[in-house]
Automatic annotation (TrEMBL):
Single Gene Ontology BP annotation: negative regulation of canonical Wnt signaling pathway
Domain LRRNT: 39-71
Domain of life: Eukaryota
Protein name (Swiss-Prot/TrEMBL): Trophoblast glycoprotein b
Keywords: Leucine-rich repeat, Membrane, Repeat, Signal, Transmembrane, Transmembrane helix
PANTHER family: LP06937P (PTHR24364), TROPHOBLAST GLYCOPROTEIN B (PTHR24364:SF21)
Annotated organism of origin: Xyrichtys novacula (Pearly razorfish)
Keyword Kinase applies: no
Lineage per the UniProt record: Eukaryota, Metazoa, Chordata, Craniata, Vertebrata
Length: 379
């Protein structure tokens, strides 16, 4: 295109020159045509049918891609959004598209309409806020989809992930949703992915497995490492048992090793479906921290309501406090020993005076002759 726009020349040429010029023009036109169809975009590298436009500060997908491109890398650039105009010409042969590390925020409707044979798509390491449900064509052939660390944050996640339920991704077999702050997933999030085989939800802050996950008919590998699971309820264990072809990874979760984990522990010792069961360790209580779940004895699993241990420590503490108070009391006594001695003498003297007075009065009272006198003198 750029070649086409070069000026055709001035008016000072001779007749023979003009003929030559028109021939040159034709050649240039042909060349630019070939460039448009098969040429490599500026600053990109093209080898065979692979085009690589990596880390060259692009802010859009290059428009003039060779129409026979099979593999396209546009990674490490600054493309803020994808839409209908990202792939204006049909690329029948494109199967692999790598767009990681581009700060992509939105993927609009019909973005992949012109890529009918797309099989592998990598959108990892972006900041997606908005993903249109109509981004993929109805008969999409996508099989491997990488959305690792792709989303901006977990706000509106159920809305953002709506495209997974759009019924357009019937061929999808591998889905990588790792390193996203997903937290909670809608129950039926994977229900329209009938061919899903490998699903990674590693490091995604998940606290419970979406209900519908076990209904995905062909699911074979489920990676749930480094999430926020503390226990697996019996209902989940039963569902896993009912799907013997399913294999899971569960290491790196903060397992809570109290009496509630007993069922899971018994199950874990007998199952082969948890590939990394050797690596599961307790996070709480402190006494069992880092202890492998498989090496736990039933007697080590205390219930939170079980006060045995708590009481034991509180008795020891109480004893210590009492001993301390006793020591302080003795110390105070010792330091004040002179004052106390004086005080005791004073009391003794006071007592003695009092006793003498009492004694005297008793003697008077006991004398019936003086009784009336004493009563009168008291008044
Ligand atoms: C690429 O474009 C050229 C010229 O229009 C056409 O002949 C060729 O068939 C196209 N190739 C593909 C794979 O579409
Ligand atoms: C997502 O895109 C739709 C349509 O383009 C728009 O209406 C909506 O406001 C966008 N949402 C966000 C959170 O950007
Ligand atoms: C997805 O991309 C990340 C990094 O961008 C990579 O580590 C991971 O292996 C990819 N996942 C798949 C399934 O290819
Ligand atoms: C998520 O991102 C949006 C848009 O930037 C922002 O308004 C919102 O506060 C963020 N939420 C969290 C929990 O960070
Ligand atoms: C886990 O995911 C978060 C994003 O949610 C990311 O920032 C962090 O680097 C990931 N951790 C690892 C070890 O990949
Ligand atoms: C599925 O995951 C397992 C374990 O991570 C891996 O060995 C296998 O190659 C994956 N299959 C595909 C089709 O990627
Ligand atoms: C899981 O699905 C079943 C029906 O399939 C439903 O009865 C149950 O309430 C669901 N559980 C949760 C936690 O949503
Ligand atoms: C152990 O698992 C097998 C099947 O894998 C099952 O038949 C058996 O009942 C289980 N035993 C216990 C004690 O759960």
């Amino acid at each position: 295109m750029r070649l086409l726009s070069t000026p055709g020349g001035g008016n000072r040429g001779e007749i023979s020159g003009s003929k030559l010029r028109s021939g040159m023009m034709y050649l240039l036109f042909l060349l630019s045509f070939v460039m448009f169809c098969h040429g490599c975009p500026e600053k990109c590298r093209c080898v065979s049918q692979t085009v690589k436009c990596q880390n060259i500060n692009l802010n859009a997908i290059p428009q003039s891609l060779p129409n026979n491109t099979e593999v396209l890398f546009v990674t490490g650039n600054y493309i803020s959004g994808l839409g209908m105009d990202s792939f204006p010409t049909r690329l029948e042969l494109l199967t692999d598209l790598y767009l990681s590390g581009n700060e992509i925020e939105s993927v609009d409707a019909k973005t992949f309409e012109n890529l009918p044979n797309l099989v592998r798509l990598d959108l990892s390491d972006n900041k997606i806020l908005n993903f249109s449900e109509g981004a993929f064509p109805h008969d999409s052939k996508l099989q491997v989809f990488n959305l690792s660390n792709s989303f901006h944050n977990h706000t509106f996640m159920d809305v953002v992930l709506g495209f997974l339920q759009s019924e357009n991704l019937h061929q999808l077999t591998v889905l990588d949703l790792s390193n996203n702050d997903l937290v909670i997933l809608p129950d039926d999030i994977f229900s329209n992915l009938p061919h899903l085989v490998n699903l990674s939800l590693q490091n995604s802050s998940i606290i419970s497995i979406p209900n519908g996950t076990f209904k995905v008919p062909m699911l074979h590998d489920l990676d749930l490492r480094d999430n926020s699971f503390r226990n697996l309820p019996t209902t989940i264990l039963e569902q896993i048992n009912l799907k013997p072809g399913l294999h899971m990874r569960l290491a790196g979760n903060p397992w809570r090793c109290d009496c509630f984990i007993e069922d899971m522990l018994l199950w874990l010792k007998n199952t082969t479906q948890i590939i990394d069961r050797q690596d599961l360790t307790c996070a709480v209580p402190e006494a069992l921290r880092q202890r492998p779940l498989l090496h736990l004895e039933q007697s080590q699993l205390k219930c939170p309501g079980d006060m045995e241990g708590v009481l034991e420590t509180s008795y020891v503490f109480l004893g210590l406090v009492l001993a301390l108070i006793g020591v302080i009391f003795l110390l105070v006594l010792y330091l004040n020993r002179k004052g106390i001695k004086r005080w005791i003498y004073n009391i003794r003297d006071a007592c003695r005076d009092h006793m003498e007075g009492y004694h005297y009065r008793y003697e008077i009272n006991s004398d019936p002759r003086l009784a009336n006198l004493s009563i009168n003198s008291d008044v």
